[in-house]
Structure formats: structure tokens, C-alpha cells
Design goal:
Blueprint: H1 2-8, H2 14-33, H3 39-47, H4 53-78, H5 95-123, H6 129-148, H7 154-164, H8 174-219, H9 237-254, H10 259-277, H11 283-293, H12 299-324, H13 337-360, H14 366-371, H15 381-395, H16 409-421, H17 430-451, H18 457-463, H19 473-476, E1 479-485, E2 490-496, E3 500-501, E4 522-524, E5 550-552, E6 556-557, E7 567-568
Parallel strand pairs: 4-5
Antiparallel strand pairs: 1-2, 2-7, 3-6
Helix pairs in contact: 1-2, 1-4, 1-7, 2-6, 3-4, 3-5, 3-8, 4-7, 5-6, 5-8, 5-10, 6-9, 6-10, 7-8, 9-10, 9-12, 9-16, 10-15, 11-12, 11-13, 11-17, 12-16, 13-15, 13-17, 16-17
């Protein structure tokens, strides 16, 4: 009801009213009903197996009643002048088909965001669910409003069209909004269910792999071979989700979405896919992360992911071409031409990459601050990254920097490819966005490194200072843990092969090491010295200013010997058994 009123009573800024209203409603009622407000979302939940058919039908009935009630209240408040029915743009060559297509696309993105942020919220409570879902709707309404009206909600469409009948409106196109969005919702539910299944399956495989490695090392047997090592694999879900995210970000830009809408879609996609793929959607960001941690052995992953981003962006460009018949490429058009555009793209891409690093990679002295904000450390990183895009696009118009505001070589390639099909000579400007984009990645990384020169990533990766789901030495003859440096919020796969001591009580006694380090405290969740087994830890205690600490189950393993690649995390969490997959993407899904 409230969502329908927001849309009916704000004809000039519908995209803002719709997105912000949905954002508020998610925060207000998510704990009561799941905050669907949309038959598309309910059908998505049904397709994902998270809702029964009877419950889904009940949700849809009350949603439609709410939409009709909201439209009639709008009519009672404002009369008929502001209430127009949803209908496709008649100037399009195939209005109804274009409307069905675009409604289905953005309903898919809205439902996928809702599914994935809800999944993340189940794994670990977060504060960005409403921001992500509302941002997705805001972006979609802005981009698709000129094609279909930007409904994506059969209940709202029914209510608004019914109210429009009071001043001579028509419901002749209502079928569009009962065909396109439900199809998109069902497809997103199927995809989301598969993504969650793969995510959980790979976690289980990672647990099993780490246990086999621990057993092999403890028994002096050869470790699992490369063919058994999941660390070197790149899950299919990573490039797939990166491609989907790049597709929708580029689609909003190619359809002429408002600068804020482009930033909002970035925000939604980052929160949607962060735990699945890292949420880069931009080759400049992906190569910047590679440079940040320097794992050249994983460069092939970055190349595949970047290729997926470009493919998604090109597909989006041609989808926009099919929908509108023409796509405009806002290339270098400022007073200084390509040179001025390249300089601005270089600077602002650097700002983007710096923001990504600052929000989602470890920084020194963050442990104490983050510990006081458990559950909220990474809640708004998507909003920060998305608003960098939005601000940059505001600045990049013809009367400003004149670059078009891409800051993403994949996005620029996608829009330019569709503009070529429209007859523009956009291909000649591609060098601006690839050179400036990748150069800006280096700039952002350099500035970050300069300002955080005290952060030694290599040392964190090598030391693997021990916190872990321990394998009791009495059980396997050694202690295997997941190393964590609380000061840097970095995880490493470490073998605790020295200075091992068991604790018969919850708190291990202090101990000075021969190399001069300060005492290290540990907390055990198992039986001191008595085979606590392979169980997750539940508490930590730092030593040596946070450089020396450990947790084990059944035994306390102090100061591991390192030997694994670091994992990036966006907040300090107690590591679980599956935190051992060494890879470039750290805690961001790869």
C-alpha cells in the first residue's frame, strides 16, 4: 500500500520515491513478513524452495489488495491528475515486447538482490539489506521508466492502473506486468537456489580438504595433490555472478539511467555478489586487488573474471540496443577532448579503487575499532563504492569533465559496442577508458599503499599467527589451525609446528617465546590436552600487540609457522573450519 502510494504520488521523481520507500519498508517489516511487497519476489522465493505454494498464493493476494488500497488512497488524496496507468512507450517499434523484456530483466535483478542479501543475512546479520534492495529498485525504475514505466511489481501495477480508470485510463497493458516480472522472479529464484547450493557445497569441500591436509601432515603422509587442491580452482559461480553484475550496471548506464541510478545499481550488485564473487564488476578493480596482494599465481583468475565482466557489459549494451533501437555513447566531449577525459577517468578510477581497498581490505589498527562494531564493519561498503560511481558521473558531463563517467573499462566497452551498432564512431575512444582505467587502478593502489605503508601484507600472509579450528595433537599428532592476525584482520593457513602447549583451563597461561615476542594468550573451547577434536573456536585473545594469539579446540596452538596465502575479510569474525581455502579473493568468494 505505502509503496503504491509513493509511486502514484511522485510522478516527477518516481525512481527516488520508489527506491527509498522500498528501502524504508524493508527495514520496517523484514522481521515480520520477509518484506516481499511484490508477487515477483514471492514467486522467486517459491522457485528457490523457500516458500510453500499456499503461502506464496496468500502473499500475492494480500500484495494485490495492498496495491489496490494504496492506489485508491492516492486517488482520494490527490485526485486523478497525478495517477497515470503503467503502459509501454508507444514510440518503440515493439512496445509490448520491449516492456515485457525490460520488466523481466529488472524484476530478475531485484529478486536476485533480495535473495542473495537475505542469504547473507542468514549467514551473518548485516545492516545493508534494505539499502541493497531499495537501490536495485531505484536503479531499475530510472533506467526502464521510459520503456515500460518501471513497475516490476504486478500488485503495484494492478492498483495504479485500476485507479487510473477513474479518469479515463486503461488496463489494456496490465498483462505486461503480470508476465514480465513473474518470469524474471522465477528465473532469479532458480539461479539463486543454485548459487547457494554451490556455495555450500564448496564450503563443505573446503572443510574436507583442510582436514585431509591436517591428517596427512600429522601422519607424515604426502599432502593431497594439485588435482585435489580446491585452492587452485575458480568456481563457476565467480565469473557468472561477475558477468551478471556487470550486465545490470552497464544496462542502467546504456539505457540512460540517472547518475544516482548507476551508483545505486553498483551498490545493489556489490551487496548481492560480495560473498559469491567479490563484487568487482570492473577490470580496474579486479586488477587492483591482484596488485594489492601480489598473488601472481592467481592472475589467471583475474583475467577470466575480467573477461566475464566485459562479456556481461557487451551483452547489456546490445540488450539496451534491442530495447531502444539506439544507444548513445557519451564519449570525450569536454573542452579538452580525449586528453581531459583521460585525466578525469584516471583520477576518478583511482578514487574508486582506493575506496574499494579502504572498505574491503585489511588496515592496521582496525581490530580494536572493528571489535566494537561486530556485525557492522562492512555493512555500508557497497554504498560507499556505489556513490563513487554516482558522484563521478555527475562530474563527468559535457559541462564538467566531459568523459561520460565510466570508470570501468568493461562498462565503457559494452556501451561503445552498442553505440557502434547504432552508427556512432565510438570505438576510437576505447583507448581512453582502458588506459585511464587500468592506470587509475595503479594510482589508487599507490595512494593507498602510501597512506598505509605500515601494513605489511606479505608478513601477514607468511606469519599465519594462529587462531584456529584446531585438530588436537593427541588425535592426529600435530596441531593444524587457521592463522589469523587480529591486528590486520588477515587469515592464513598455518601449521602450528612449534611452541605447542595444552591448556587444562579456558585461558592458557602466558608464555615468553625464545625469539623475544610477548606472551600469547589463547582460549580453548575443548578439553585441555584431551582431544577436543576438530571444532570451531569461539573466542580469541591477542598477544604481542595483536601479533601473537591463538585459539584451538582441545589445545592451544601458539604462533604458527605460516605457509599460506592471506584471505581478505571485511570485518573481524571468528574463523570457522572452512576458512582455509587459499586464493586471491580472500573472504570475497574466490
Amino acid at each position: 500500500m505505502i509503496l503504491t502510494m509513493a509511486i502514484c504520488l511522485s510522478p516527477d521523481d518516481t525512481y527516488l520515491a520508489a527506491g527509498l520507500a522500498l528501502m524504508v519498508l524493508v527495514y520496517a517489516f523484514d522481521h515480520i513478513s520477509g518484506a516481499h511487497y511484490n508477487p515477483t519476489v514471492s514467486l522467486s522465493q517459491l522457485a528457490a524452495g523457500r516458500m510453500t505454494l499456499v503461502m506464496c498464493a496468500l502473499y500475492i493476494v494480500v500484495q494485490v489488495l495492498g496495491g489496490i488500497t494504496g492506489a485508491l488512497l492516492s486517488y482520494a488524496v490527490a485526485g486523478t491528475s497525478n495517477i497515470q496507468e503503467f503502459k509501454p512507450d508507444p514510440k518503440l517499434s515493439h512496445p509490448d515486447l520491449s516492456a515485457v523484456f525490460v520488466e523481466g530483466l529488472f524484476a530478475f535483478s531485484l529478486s536476485l538482490v533480495q535473495q542473495q542479501v537475505s542469504h547473507q543475512n542468514q549467514l551473518e546479520p548485516n545492516s545493508y539489506t534494505g539499502i541493497a534492495i531499495g537501490s536495485s529498485l531505484l536503479a531499475g525504475v530510472s533506467a526502464a521508466g521510459g520503456i515500460s514505466g518501471g513497475c516490476f511489481n504486478s500488485a503495484v501495477g494492478t492498483g495504479r492502473d485500476l485507479a487510473a480508470l477513474f479518469h479515463g485510463g486503461s488496463m489494456g497493458s496490465i498483462w505486461v506486468y503480470w508476465v514480465g516480472p513473474p518470469i524474471g522472479g522465477i528465473l532469479s529464484g532458480v539461479l539463486s537456489s543454485w548459487l547457494v547450493f554451490m556455495f555450500q557445497k564448496e564450503q563443505e569441500e573446503s572443510k574436507a580438504l583442510q582436514l585431509r591436509k591436517a591428517e596427512a601432515e600429522a601422519q607424515g603422509s604426502p599432502a593431497p595433490g594439485p588435482g585435489d587442491d580446491g585452492d587452485r580452482r575458480l568456481s563457476l559461480r565467480v565469473p557468472l555472478v561477475e558477468m551478471i553484475g556487470a550486465f545490470f550496471i552497464t544496462l542502467v548506464a546504456a539505457l540512460g539511467g540517472h547518475p544516482l541510478a548507476v551508483g545505486a545499481m553498483v551498490t545493489a550488485m556489490v551487496h548481492m555478489g560480495d560473498h559469491m564473487c567479490g563484487g568487482d564488476y570492473n577490470p580496474a578493480v579486479s586488477f587492483g586487488i591482484l596488485a594489492r596482494f601480489g598473488y601472481i599465481a592467481d592472475a589467471w583468475k583475474t583475467c577470466i573474471v575480467s573477461l566475464a565482466q566485459v562479456v556481461g557489459a557487451v551483452l547489456a549494451g546490445f540488450a539496451a540496443f534491442v530495447l531502444k533501437g539506439k544507444v548513445e555513447f557519451n564519449g570525450p566531449e569536454g573542452s579538452h577532448g580525449p586528453a581531459g577525459a583521460a585525466v578525469f577517468e584516471f583520477i576518478w578510477t583511482g578514487m574508486l579503487v582506493y575506496t574499494v581497498w579502504a572498505c574491503t581490505t585489511p588496515i592496521l589498527d582496525a581490530w580494536e575499532q572493528a571489535a566494537n562494531r561486530e556485525g557492522h564493519q562492512a555493512s555500508y561498503h557497497g554504498l560507499a563504492i556505489g556513490m563513487v560511481y554516482a558522484i563521478g558521473r555527475y562530474m563527468a558531463g559535457a559541462n564538467g569533465a566531459g568523459s561520460g563517467g565510466y570508470f570501468n573499462p568493461a562498462m565503457a566497452t559494452g556501451v561503445a559496442s552498442a553505440a557502434l551498432a547504432s552508427g556512432e564512431e565510438s570505438g576510437k575512444w576505447m583507448w581512453v577508458y582502458w588506459v585511464a582505467g587500468l592506470g587509475g587502478s595503479i594510482l589508487g593502489g599507490a595512494v593507498f599503499s602510501l597512506l598505509h605503508a605500515h601494513t605489511d601484507v606479505d608478513a601477514m600472509a607468511d606469519q599465519g599467527l594462529g587462531m584456529g579450528a584446531g585438530v588436537d595433537p593427541d588425535l592426529l599428532g600435530g596441531d593444524m589451525g587457521m592463522g589469523m592476525d587480529p591486528q590486520q584482520l588477515m587469515f592464513a593457513h598455518a601449521h602450528a609446528d612449534s611452541d605447542l602447549e595444552d591448556a587444562g583451563s579456558a585461558l592458557a597461561p602466558p608464555r615468553n617465546y625464545s625469539d623475544g615476542t610477548a606472551p600469547s594468550l589463547g582460549i580453548s573451547s575443548g578439553r585441555g590436552g584431551g582431544g577436543g577434536g576438530y571444532e570451531p573456536p569461539y573466542a580469541v585473545a591477542p598477544g604481542d600487540s595483536g601479533r601473537d594469539f591463538s585459539v584451538g579446540s582441545g589445545s592451544i596452538a601458539s604462533r604458527g609457522a605460516g605457509g599460506g596465502s592471506a584471505r581478505r575479510v571485511s570485518k573481524p569474525t571468528l574463523v570457522s573450519e572452512d576458512e582455509g581455502d587459499r586464493s586471491l579473493r580472500f573472504a570475497r568468494g574466490r
